[in-house]
From TrEMBL:
InterPro entries the UniProt entry points to: PAC4
Protein name: Proteasome assembly chaperone 3
One matching Pfam family: PAC4
Biological process annotations from GO: proteasome assembly
Lineage: Eukaryota, Fungi, Dikarya, Ascomycota, Pezizomycotina
Length: 179
């Protein structure tokens, strides 16, 4: 089951900037590393971003537990959100390290640009993690069975671009976990 995969893809809404993602799958843990590189930065050193550990909560599977191992303010929210989404999909502990920069996007990293980047990263990660994703935790399975979890709601909202603000998304996921 041990796998080490690397993939590179364009950062949405940015010219000449790519996201580089490495996914390491072990029998009991997933490690994801993310960074962005623009054409101008290819030879420069990229600063370390945030690192977050998240794990499933056996009493509330839709509300993974997470802790920040290393906090770098510009990347901590994205990193935490991604770690929790991956835990919901796989029901496995996840380490996510991210130095993803949205500075080269059209508007410099607005909420919409961050959600577009999140959507692409989650889609690529879910393709690469098919061997460990639990079928009941995918958006398609949730739609088919009529069930819903915070992951499928959040991803569908991102896909439909109906998410208004980060605060609203946080409130909705908190309310979903309580019901």
């Amino acid at each position: 089951m041990d796998q080490d995969q690397e993939v590179s893809f364009p950062l949405p809404r940015a010219l000449d900037t790519r996201i580089h993602m490495r996914i390491i799958t072990k029998s009991a843990v997933i490690i994801v590393q993310l960074t962005t590189v623009s054409a101008e930065e290819k030879l420069s050193i990229v600063p370390m971003g945030s690192m977050v550990y998240a794990m499933p909560d056996k009493f509330a599977p839709n509300m993974p537990l997470s802790t920040q191992i290393y906090k770098e303010e510009p990347t901590v929210d994205f990193t935490t959100r991604l770690a929790k989404i991956l835990v919901k999909m796989t029901q496995m502990p996840v380490y996510v390290s991210s130095s993803l920069s949205l500075a080269n996007t059209g508007l410099g990293g607005t909420f919409e640009e961050e959600m577009a980047a999140m959507q692409v990263v989650v889609e690529i990660a879910s393709q690469r993690l098919q061997h460990v994703i639990k079928p009941s935790n995918t958006p398609a399975a949730a739609a088919h069975t009529g069930t819903s979890n915070a992951y499928s709601v959040s991803l569908e909202e991102v896909k439909n671009k109906t998410v208004g603000t980060l605060k609203e998304l946080t409130i909705r996921s908190t309310e979903a976990g309580k019901s």
